[in-house]
Design goal:
Elements (H helix, E strand, L loop, with lengths): L1 E6 L10 H13 L4 E7 L7 H10 L3 E3 L4 H8 L3 E4 L16 E5 L4 H7 L2 H14 L5 H15 L10 H7 L3 H7 L4 E5 L2 H10 L8 E2 L14 H7 L4 E4 L9 H14 L5 E5 L9 E4 L4 H10 L2 E4 L8 H7 L5 E4 L4 H5 L4 E3 L4 H13 L1 H31 L1
Helix pairs in contact: 5-6, 11-15, 13-16
Length: about 400
């Protein structure tokens, strides 16, 4: 029986994100195997009630991520230590752990965006939307800009050399780990694999690519607000608008023009930003897992304008319901979604405006296409989950 140490630190997240859902789904499938499972966490009180229940039912011992935890891990003589999100451990030196380590790096979007100087183009607008409901938003935006200039030389047209950049973004321990013979890196797309290879040297073992699994969502209640919203007007959906790389500002600008041309036929539902009054827009700051899935299933379209993705769950999750997607032609998204969905350049709002109009003229075609694309990707996700579990246990 294999003795596995599992990353519970990632499961301490209190909000929905693709990385945590990935790790949770791997956990649900790993406990079905004949394994002796331990957990590594920092604060078990932050784990969800469901995870705590499973820990208690299966009597999974926990090792706390504090003090000399490396010595404790080595003393237990594990066959494998599974790390679900590499960046959660950037501040820890895992290089002295003796057992096999499988570490998942979904993307290095922070590095890629820095090298492309994307943030200096978007930060002011992003901050303005984020600060909109607070007092003195412009003042706060300018203050944040000054902080970024002090931290990030790319604002001045200067980019750091690789070694200095990795140090600035806190990847020193990760870089050192990749050079160890007992460390095996897993990522979620070919794009992410080659992005990692581009910025990190002397990687000891071949990077493995497994698509992230189909998410096993918790059966949470759907509020009346969400039900009523979904049963009313046709709406374009935008999710995770509070995350800078999701590129929300371009959606709002393009949708205003598009909907004016359509005589306000549509609404926009935006998840991730605080509620504010705006014609034909409905803002929802937080939703639970089933509410998010429900919104996707009822949407007229999902707009996914992200400027950096390792995989990108939302387009595939939306398309399984036959919901068409307009996505940025960027990073991993074309690799995962294929060539046949509607893409736009995430810099040009007029391109998104054009694709929104084009979708309304060819809607039924893209509904059927969405189902076909999703079915193919979901099959690979299912196969790759089995491959990942085998990789952990071998």
């Amino acid at each position: 029986m294999k003795k596995i140490l599992f990353d519970f630190l990632t499961l301490e997240d209190s909000y929905i994100n693709g990385g945590a859902l990935y790790v949770r789904t791997v956990f649900y499938n790993l406990i079905k195997e004949d394994v002796c499972l331990y957990g590594l966490c920092k604060n078990e009180n932050k784990l969800s009630a469901e995870i705590k229940s499973i820990i208690q039912e299966l009597q999974i011992p926990l090792i706390m991520l504090q003090g000399n935890f490396v010595q404790t891990v080595n003393a237990e003589k594990f066959d494998c230590f599974f790390v679900g999100i590499a960046q959660r451990y950037n501040i820890y030196d895992l290089s002295k752990i003796n057992c096999k380590i499988i570490i998942v790096c979904h993307d290095i979007g922070d590095i890629c965006r820095y090298k492309a100087s994307i943030d200096r183009n978007y930060d002011m607008i992003y901050d303005f939307y984020k600060m909109r409901n607070k007092k003195f938003p412009k003042l706060r935006c300018y203050r944040n800009l000054m902080k970024r200039i002090a931290f990030d030389k790319s604002f001045l047209g200067i980019t750091l050399k690789n070694d200095k950049m990795l140090n600035r973004f806190g990847y020193d321990n990760f870089s050192k780990l990749l050079q160890k013979d007992n460390v095996y890196l897993v990522t979620v797309s070919q794009y992410s694999k080659y992005a990692i290879e581009y910025y990190f040297n002397n990687i000891s073992n071949e990077i493995q690519v497994f698509y992230p699994p189909v998410v096993e969502r918790l059966n949470t209640a759907i509020s009346k607000e969400i039900e009523n919203l979904s049963d009313s007007n046709k709406y374009f959906l935008f999710v995770s608008a509070d995350r800078q790389n999701k590129n929300y500002w371009i959606f709002e600008k393009a949708f205003d023009k598009f909907n004016a041309k359509m005589n306000s036929k549509f609404k926009a539902v935006v998840v991730g930003l605080p509620y504010r009054e705006k014609s034909n827009f409905h803002f929802i700051e937080r939703v639970n897992e089933m509410e998010l899935e429900y919104l996707m299933s009822k949407a007229y379209c999902l707009v996914y304008a992200s400027t950096s993705e390792g995989f990108g769950y939302p387009p595939i999750e939306a398309m399984k319901f036959g919901t068409p997607v307009i996505a940025a032609y960027d990073t991993s998204i074309p690799e995962v979604c294929g060539k046949d969905i509607l893409y736009f350049n995430p810099i040009y709002r007029e391109d998104l405006y054009f694709k929104e109009l084009y979708l309304t003229e060819n809607y039924d075609y893209y509904v059927e296409l969405a189902k076909d694309i999703s079915a193919k990707v979901i099959k690979k996700q299912t196969d790759d989950l089995r491959n990942l579990i085998s990789y952990i246990l071998r």
